[in-house]
Design brief:
This protein is mainly α. Helix content is 48%, strand content 6%. The chain is built from four helices and two strands, in the order ββαααα. A two-stranded antiparallel ribbon has the order 1-2. Strand 1 and strand 2 form a beta hairpin. The longest helix is centred in the middle third of the chain and has 17 residues.
Length: 97
C-alpha cells in the first residue's frame, strides 16, 4: 500500500508524519540524549512555528487521531460505563402528616 501526502510518497511512518505536518516529528517529540540547550532551542522553534501557523495544532491532532485509528483502533473504542443504581431513601423524620 502506498501512502501519498501532498503529492509525495511516504516511505515510512515517520516520513508520513513529516509530510502530513510539514515538520519533522523530532521537533515536537525531541530526541534521546538532547542537551538542555538543544531542548530549549527546539522548543523555541516549535513555539515560533505554532505562532506562524495557528492551524497546525488542529492538523497535528487530526494526524494523531488518524494514526491511532489505523494502528490502535481499540484505543478509540469507547463505550459508556453502566451507571450504578442509586437508591433514593426518603427520610421521614418527625410526625406523619
Amino acid at each position: 500500500m502506498r501512502i501519498i501526502v501532498a503529492g509525495h510518497t511516504a516511505m515510512s511512518p515517520d516520513e508520513f508524519v513529516e509530510l502530513a505536518l510539514g515538520t519533522p516529528p523530532e521537533l515536537w517529540l525531541g530526541v534521546e540524549g538532547e542537551s538542555e540547550t538543544e531542548r530549549a532551542a527546539r522548543l523555541d522553534a516549535a513555539r515560533d512555528i505554532l505562532a506562524e501557523e495557528p492551524g497546525l495544532t488542529d492538523r497535528v491532532s487530526r494526524v494523531a487521531v488518524q494514526a491511532i485509528e489505523a494502528y490502535a483502533p481499540d484505543l478509540l473504542n469507547v463505550v459508556p460505563l453502566a451507571r450504578p443504581a442509586v437508591r433514593c431513601r426518603s427520610s421521614r423524620k418527625g410526625a406523619a402528616a
